[in-house]
Amino acid sequence: MISINTNPAASAAAYSLDNVSRSLQKTLQRLSSGSRIVSPMDDAGGLAVAMRLNAAVRRTEATQSNVSNAQAFLETQDGVLKAAEKVISRLGELTQLGTDVTKSTNDLTLYQSEVNSLKAQLGSLMTETFNGVSLFTNGASAASINTTGTVSITASQDGSQVIAITKADLGNIGAILGSTAATATGLDITTIAKATAAITSINAAIQSIASLRASNGAEQSRLSFAADVLAINKVNLEAATSRITDVDIAEESAKLARFNILQQAGTAMLAQANQSTQSILRLLM
Predict the structure, then answer these.
(1) Extents of the domains making up the chain
(2) Nearest to 174 by CA among 214, 131, 144
């Protein structure tokens, strides 16, 4: 049937051309954005999963930052412990010098003066902080420096893993050597007998500082492994998100070429369909 009011062939060609144009536009959007999911209707379920994975990636990055800060806390703490070790080593040297029978009382008094200064320095180390957080506790009076001997670090993005790092009890060493207010008279080397007796305290202090540094090293090692796990988890989460949302450039490029050809062909066929009605004029002439 030949009619003037309707042109089914042109309508069908226009419909096909419209579909191809929309597909071409979506392909261009995917290639320009690099994302396979341009709008939620492209993959509603995949979009929801990708959003959760992206949120997990962001939390993992934040957790990595927290673990890095905890490592810095322990490194700072160990730096102070190294200084305390040097102080104790010097105190041990002075104590040993105090056992020398050739030293006069005046000599021992001078040694004691340096001992007192070093004890004061050791006491000041107990107040060291990292970003306002105390590095150490004082076994004799913990409340005067901080309220807890540990700091909890979340080591997983879902909060399921928590690592406790220790605020080393430097106050215990201070009590041994008499560098706290309560034992200000400790570590007396003003006589040979007192210096000889003080060697025991020095040995105890050295053992204590060695234990603190060993614990510090163990905690740093654990945090290092936790940081490695977080880094691996982040890579895996990003890969999973990529498989859902990232566009396959090769595939979309092939679609682009196909839709371009179809669009050109559809435009040509629509023109032909519109021209087909011109035959009616011949019937009327």
Answers:
(1) 48-244, 250-276
(2) 144
Strand ranges for the chain from DSSP E: 129-130, 133-134, 136-137, 150-154, 162-166, 168-169
Backbone angles phi and psi of 75, in degrees to 5: -65, -40
Q: How far apart are CA 189 and CA 202, in angstroms?
A: 12
Prediction pTM value: 0.77
Q: Quick one: CA dihedral 128, 134, 135, 139, positive or negative?
A: positive
The CATH number given to 48-244 is 1.20.1330.10
Tell me the per-residue pLDDT of 143-157, one tens digit each, with 9 for 90 and over.
333 445 788 888 888
Residue recorded with tokens 């700091």: 151
Average pLDDT estimate for 236-250: 91
**pLDDT > 90 fraction of the chain, expressed in percent and rounded:** 34
Q: What angle do CA 86, 143, 72 make, to 5 degrees?
A: 50
What is the DSSP secondary-structure string of 201-249?
A: HHHHHHHHHHHHHHHHHHHHHHHHHHHHHHHHHHHHHHHHHHHHHB--H
